[in-house]
Write a structure and sequence with these properties.
The chain is of the alpha+beta class and 130 residues long. It contains three helices and six strands, in the order E-E-E-H-E-E-H-H-E. Helix 1 crosses helix 2.
Length: 130
Amino acid sequence: MEFHLKDNGMHTKFDYGELAISGNEDYGFRPFQLMVASIAGCSGSVFRKILEKQRTDFEDLIISAEVERNPQEANRIEKIALHYTIKGRHLNYDKLEKNLKISRQNCSMVRSVENSIDIEETIEAIELSE
C-alpha cells in the first residue's frame, strides 16, 4: 500500500477504488472510523461465513457500533461495542452466540487489537414469519 499526503489528508488507491483519509470529515474518512469499520467488517464477514456454512436461514445481518474514546490520551479508542442484529427463520439464539464467539477467534482485526481495545459483542435475533 502506498499513501500520499494531500492538502487535507492522505489518499491511496486500491483495485476497488480510492480512499481519502482525513481528521476532518469534510475531506475523507476519519482514522478512527476506518479502524471501527475494519473491525466490524472483518467480524461480520467471518460471522456470515460461519452462518452460511451451517445453513442458517437469515435475510439480514446488521452491525451497529458504539465507540468509546479517551480524550485524555489523544482520543485513543478504548472500547468498541458491536451489536449484531440478525433477521431470519428458525434461528437458534444459543447457536448464534456460539458462532459469534467462533467468529471472534477467527477475525484477524479483532485479534490484532484484543490486548489494547476492549471489543464487546452482543447479539439479537429477530424471527421472521414464514
